[in-house]
Amino acid sequence: MSRIIAGTAGGNPLQSVPGSATRPTTDRVKEALFSRLEALGVIDDARALDLYAGSGALGLEAASRGAASAELVEFDARASAVCQRNADTVNQALARRTVSVHRSKVESFLERASEDTLWDLVFLDPPYPLDEPSLSAVLAKLAGHLDDGAVVVVERSSRSPEPDWPDALERFAAKKYGETMLWYAEPA
Distance between CA atoms of 90 and 80, rounded to whole angstroms? Predict the structure, then answer.
């Protein structure tokens, strides 16, 4: 069972999405990811966005560790329901509504976002079947909604190629953890 690792909601268990359509980020990868993000100073008061959220573990971890807000975007009905239950748990631990859940396709969500909507920290853990051109199109839509100093983290299989970054995003780091690869980018 997954859990919130640290912060105000640390130790709270997270429900998992039943079935094999999602693959939760392991605690080991989450610890390494958030250690790096804390070193970069991008979590405190961040407006976080978790795309293809699954159970919402990454956005929820950011909220627990001090993000001002976390939006979880998930289209699958079962996964979205799990996101909502996990968000309720974290919001209760934080004693405020920091996390919100949007049942939507990622592309539609980004298209509906107003021009002045900006995020500081974005997680993308798309399903493996999502092809590289589709991921690139999402990254291009996202690029116009990033604040200065924002960090984008893409989680993929270590067998997947590096994302095709749009001109507005630039990779600054990558790290492999077994079968998981994390790509870090920032506005160019």
Answer: 15
Contact 168, 144 (CB under 8 A): yes
| Strand blocks (E) in the chain | 47-51, 69-74, 99-103, 119-124, 146-157, 169-177, 180-187
Tell me if residue 113 falls in helix, strand or coil.
Answer: coil
SS3 track for 124-140: ECCCCCCCHHHHHHHHH
State the pTM of this model.
0.95
> Along the 188 residues of the chain, how does pLDDT read in single tens digits?
689 999 999 999 999 987 655 567 888 899 999 999 999 999 999 999 999 999 999 999 999 999 999 999 999 999 999 999 999 999 999 999 999 999 999 999 999 999 999 999 999 999 878 899 999 999 999 999 999 999 999 999 999 999 999 999 999 999 999 999 999 999 99
